[in-house]
Amino acid sequence: MTKKLVTKYTFEQHCHPQAAHFHLNCCSNCMMGFINSKMVVIFSIPFTFLLVCIELYIGHRQQKKYYSVTDTKHNVLLGVLFAGVEALLGGACLLMLITIYDHGFRRAPANIYVYWISLYLLEDLIYYTMHYLDHHIRILWAGHITHHNSDEFNFSVGVRAAIFEPVEKFFFFIPLALVGFRPVDILLIYIISQTYGTLAHTRLINRMGFLEYVLITPSHHRVHHAKNIVYLDKNFGMTIVLWDKLFGTFQKEMEATPVEFGVRKAAPYKNFADVVTNEIKSIINDTRKPVTMKQKLRYLFGPPGYSHDGSRLTTKELRKKEQSGQELQR
Fold this sequence. Notes:
The chain is an all-alpha fold. The protein contains 13 helices and no strands. It has one domain (about 15-245).
């Protein structure tokens, strides 16, 4: 009996060199990854607070208003909710990725440099894809809209997170774990990318020279947060501009068209609860209308702005109408 167990263990080690190590350290790796992500969040709080103070000071010196009390309060509350969802579900989601990794193909590059470069590029592409879908599928937009429905653009908006992104991102990361990238490494790249993304939320920095051709800069991200029709649904990248230029979603910030921040919603938000749930309630109301099943499904999975009667317009329809010279409601 002992001999058979030893033989089985040796065979597993031979065929899957990391198998035994994984089973012994699965829980500890999950816990360490979870703790590390929490530590990064904890240490980023004073750093973000410092950036906000600097931005407030410079705005005061320049006599420019970059912040409003109500909006900043909403930003902080949404950041707290994001952290709460991460704390409640992040560990379970990471464990899910570890399980998939354990039963995956283990085809990640063996060379350490190729491994990390590949992981970074693939993860940035996956984030681009997730971000693109968040803007083109209404049920996903209902969760992501909270990051966009601010009329301001400052460092505190960087922590105005989509509440359910901590869960959503793990489902998009499944292919990486399946291929053989370690879940803790996936999480590390995501945290670094998110930190950079927070720094892109500012009006203090105009242009960044040659970096404008490589990175998602504050200028590029201002475009992404704009409600001007020419800027809608552009610049989805997290850290690099490669994917936007490759897939035709890049738009440069133009001096002739000053950015107007926020979403194209006629009525102002009543309170914080309305900020979070308005789009969800709107979807529920739309699906209760006496329309066909196909139209109900389009209200759920079609692009934001879809309406069966033309009472609202999608980004594509808005651009077409603008090009025809028709007047549009802002």
